[in-house]
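Same chain as my last thread, 474 residues:
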Amino acid sequence: MASLYKHKITWVDIILGVLAISLFALCVYRAYNLSFTHDESSTYLHFRRSPILKFLTHSSMWGNANNHLLNTLLMQGSIDVFGSSDLSLRFPNIISFGFYMYAIVKLGKNLFKNPFVLLFFFIICCANPYAFDFFSLCRGYGLSMCFQMLAFSFVFDYLKNPSNKNLASILLSLFFMAFALFSTLLLIPVFLGALLSVLLLKNKLDRKHFFIATGFLLFCTIVFYVPVTALSGNGEFNFGEATFVESMQNFASYFFYNKPYLGNGISIVFLSLIIISGGLLIFKNISKRQIDLQISYEWFMVGSLSLLIIGLILSKLILGTLYPMERKTLLLFPYAYILLGLLLNVLEEVPYLKYSKFLICSFFVFHFFDAHQIEKTREWWYDYETKKIIQIIQKDTSNDVSLSVNWLFHPTASRYLELYNMNNVSLDKYTKSIADLERSDYFICIGSDYKKLKKDYNVHYENQSSIRLLKKKD
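reply #2:
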């Protein structure tokens, strides 16, 4: 199928190029303009000078899961080269978005012979508002999604040509995926188990590659043992949903940015399409004796998703871990993208249903423009003007003043006070109770705090989210 797109530039290549450039420019724009967020600032303040190797050998370094190792390492390198601006700290994630789009186009051209399905696949992968948020931030989520999608792409290459190079590409992608985000570690045995099953089905298993993959699993166990056991001991993996059904509902909700389309019925429709896609792939391939490249990859997708579900359930039963929710559901997003694309591939063979791709694609384009917020992120909405608020204080006074903040703003306020060399501003301690804070000259609060503070303060600035900068009354 890839040959359909080779040797000449087609109209679909031009459209893909325009879309890729536009989305990449938007990613850069947001990385430059978005205020730093709570978790980004915490990473910068606590880990910008920490030696990475120490995190792999000392459990005492893991007080919380805020440290996404690959992001921290790349952030440190970016600071050394470009400085400490918001854009330079986010630069590695911006670049990862370029590689992410490359993997999507590469995989799409291999899987989809219809150019409209290829376009749909690109749009749904790259223009999901929730996933798109993370490529403009200094966190590990965008990096992890990038390497996960590269791994999906390299699996196709390996099934086509089981060379040492293609196997190494898969293993490296899986390693960096997990190095960026520990919550994706389960995907390593899932990918390798599904790939092994397909190779056994085709009777094409290379014993040398089997031992290499086994050695890789052992290597990952050794490398990630200290941080994972330390975080587990701190209860950092106890964040999630109690049941698998609740986890899938949460996944569907976040996939659509918590937008109540069809009165929240969109979640049922979406999950039904995923189930139908997997079922159709099994139904159409189970009786085929000749397993070609396309069928091999479809079996890999069904197998890896099945193993992932089994792994999550066993982890809950044996280790007591919870099912993914909110940001942790991002590891499921690439599965949804690919399965929806493969569903449209199947529907292409049904005379009247093949036109459904235009309706589905139109909906996802509408969803992007309806849900995407260029000035803020879904997860850290409260921080979207923290930078502006600190700048307001900077312009308002050069005298020595004190500042108290709701705990949500503390890391980002601290970062910008340092970045702008505002040594005249003394930041109060970090605490989750405003009753424990001093009545400082300025106070940054959320809406629920204001009733407790208004007798002592005037509102100096307020935004649309009821985030207020208060100034002490004379």
